[in-house]
Amino acid sequence: MDTTLILIAVVVLMAISFDFINGFHDTANAIATSVSTKALTPRMAILLASSMNLLGALAFTGVAKTIGGKIADPFELENGLVIVLAALIAAIAWNLITWYLGIPSSSSHALIGALTGSVLVAAGTSGVNFKGFLTILQALIISPFAAFAIGYIIMNILRFLFKNANPRSVNRGFRYMQIVTAAFQAFSHGTNDAQKSMGIITFALIAGGLHQTMEIPVWVKIVCALAMAAGTSAGGWKIIKTVGSKIIKLQPISGFSSDLTSASVIISATLLGQPVSTTHVISSAIMGVGSAKSVASVKWLTAQRMITAWVITLPVTAIIAALCYSIISIF
């Protein structure tokens, strides 16, 4: 029992660390456009993102239940705590590597890939709920395409509506409106991303025999929400630079369009209980908005680098988690 309690404590601390890192890793995505267009100062953007992330994290639990129960059944797995620990180590390592390199990769892909890899090496293919995994994978794949298409449509509609308006007045108006969409963006980020750590902790509590249902304990919701908000306040300036300026040159109207698009896609996924990559969705929305202006205006080399990171995240984190599980199991 002592060993189990120690493992649970370590897993909870690691999950909180993942949430904190996720906060500063993905905060950039939520506020990059508003900072880039000077709708908000960096300090104000981070304060807004922190508070709205906190509210969003406390608002929903559907995604947490999906992460905690649809990839594998925590009630059936042996060594469930070691499985979760290995997954968290792999996901955190990948997040830190991509953050250091300034690549807006996906924390969601990292965690889902790592958990799947850890379960596979621990319990084989029978341990993975492939139906649930494929449902999650489907949401991860569809959401960026939806964001690209919606961003393209919204930007074209706005360009048509304001084609004869004074550009300076349009920019000033949309700069104010970006404050609202930045808040919506940060809220939606909290509703989806903070849920992932809640699901992992609940998974660990069930595996350790300290919890009997997939209902998320109140203390888990509060701790994960605070960790996400704290991480958000730490910021992620390298990724802000990549998302805010290295995909397209943003103006307030395009920043508004991309924020509205990505926040709408993320909150829709949350309402369906599906984890999506906020990084993928936001970056794809910016690309869609940029393409509406001109395909040539999108810096496709940067986009290609980001897409490469997205594609390799699932298999790489699965392999790292499998290695971590094998090493931890020795002890």
What does this structure look like?
- The chain has 331 residues and is an all-alpha fold.
- The protein has one domain (2-330).
- The chain is built from twelve helices and no strands.
- The longest helix is centred in the middle third of the chain and has 41 residues, at 167-207.
- The chain is elongated and about 70 Å long.
- The chain starts with a helix and ends with a helix.
- It comes from Desulfotruncus arcticus DSM 17038.
- GO terms for molecular function: phosphate transmembrane transporter activity.
- Keywords: Membrane, Transmembrane, Transmembrane helix, Transport.
Write the layout of secondary structure elements.
Layout lengths: L1 H35 L5 H18 L2 H8 L10 H21 L6 H17 L6 H32 L5 H41 L10 H17 L2 H9 L6 H20 L6 H16 L6 H31 L1
Helix pairs in contact: 1-2, 1-4, 1-7, 1-8, 1-9, 1-10, 2-7, 2-8, 3-7, 4-5, 4-12, 5-12, 6-10, 6-11, 7-8, 7-10, 10-11
Keywords: Membrane, Transmembrane, Transmembrane helix, Transport
Subcellular location: Membrane
Membrane topology: Multi-pass membrane protein
